[in-house]
Write a structure and sequence with these properties.
- By secondary structure, this protein is α/β, with parallel strands linked by helices.
- Helix content is 39%, strand content 22%.
- It has helices at residues 17-23, 41-47, 64-73, 90-100, 175-192, 200-217, 224-248, and strands at 4-10, 29-34, 51-54, 78-83, 86-87, 108-111, 113-117, 120-121, 130-135, 139-140, 150-151, 155-157, 167-173.
- Helix 2 links the parallel strand 2 (29-34) and strand 3.
- Helix 5 (175-192) runs parallel beside helix 7 (224-248).
Length: 249
């Protein structure tokens, strides 16, 4: 059955949700999996005709524990998993329906994503591939931060040249938001990397390489001062992560 459910994971996601839902119109189902929001998220979803299921938030500070529940709650054979600040294009919708209409459709399609920082599109993060189009019965999503779905079957990527098919990340981070994310994400990543040990050398080469990769290899220099700041933030992320792992040990 060639149907697609759009699955949107939410928690206090009222800022962009209505725009995200409107962009997803035309799919067979829009399912909002909410983690007990305290704002108007659920009202917005219901008002716009979405089916809403609830995943208990508990002590979770990340979305991944709710991913598998959301996927299993969908009614279609195929699912497009997006966040409440990610917008799909009509071209992507048409592309996906055409893709599942043929026999050789893979079980997972990695989609390019456009990111913004300080009001600018970041060349250094594109195509930022994310595995979000999935055959529902062929996937299991681990409940750990930044985890990718485990897929039984073939996978492929949308060509990065097809920028019209890229997911538009509506988040327009400020420097303060980036710094807050660095602290939160590194806390969770220290737990995920419990088997690794880093020494003094990693405090030097990991931040240096991440800056070099972001600013020079991936073209961050094309984004002016925001591109330079982003690259420095990438380096800071690695420095903080390694510092916390050394502190843990």
């Amino acid at each position: 059955m060639n149907t697609i459910s759009v699955v949107i994971n939410t928690y206090n996601a009222e800022l962009h949700l209505e725009k995200v839902i409107h962009a997803a119109k035309g799919f067979d189902e829009i399912l909002v999996c909410d983690m007990e929001s305290t704002d108007s998220t659920v009202d917005i979803a219901e008002r716009n005709g979405c089916r809403v299921v609830v995943f208990p938030k508990g002590d979770n500070t990340i979305v991944e524990p709710a991913r598998q529940f959301a996927i299993e709650s969908a009614t279609s054979e195929w699912v497009l998993v997006i966040d409440a600040d990610e917008m799909v294009t009509s071209q992507l919708r048409d592309y996906l329906y055409k893709r599942i209409s043929v026999d050789d459709c893979p079980h997972c399609i990695w989609l390019p994503r456009k990111n913004r920082f300080m009001g600018r599109f970041m060349h250094s993060t594109y195509p930022d591939y994310i595995p979000r189009f999935l055959h529902r019965e062929s996937v299991h999503w681990p409940p750990t931060i930044h985890s990718a779905p485990v897929v039984k079957g073939r996978q492929e990527k949308v060509p990065s040249s097809r920028m019209d098919l890229a997911i538009e990340h509506l988040a327009n981070d400020t420097v303060a938001m980036r710094m807050a994310k660095i602290n939160t994400y590194t806390d969770n990543e220290v737990v995920r990397r419990s088997a690794k040990n880093y020494a003094l050398g990693a405090l030097l080469w990991r931040p240096f390489f991440r800056f070099f990769k972001s600013y020079f290899l991936k073209g961050g220099f094309r984004d002016g001062i925001p591109g330079f700041i982003w690259a420095v933030n990438e380096a800071v992320y690695q420095f903080v992560l390694v510092s916390k792992m050394i502190e843990r040990n």
